[in-house]
Amino acid sequence: MQERFDLESRAAWLEKFANASIPAAPINAVPEALRDAQALARGLIVQIEHPALGDVRGIANPVRFSDAPVTYRLPPPMLGEHTEEILRACAANA
Description:
Elements lengths: L1 H4 L4 H10 L10 H6 L1 H5 L3 E6 L3 E6 L23 H10 L2
Antiparallel strand pairs: 1-2
């Protein structure tokens, strides 16, 4: 199937599917998802200050409660940042 899909652009396929009343949507790469108009309109992209990386963008919690808004207190961890802490906790509970 991939060989067939490679013959035309993603936009062309999406148009063909729409014309045939076949529900379809693109599979976005991360940079595309972070620029998606619907995600931006719904406030699904958050910007957090990271001590090593500066401003980073991430995915917001999609669950919305009017009386308990979500807060983002911590930046995403660096690769391996909590490894020793997790391994110690696992060893303590073994």
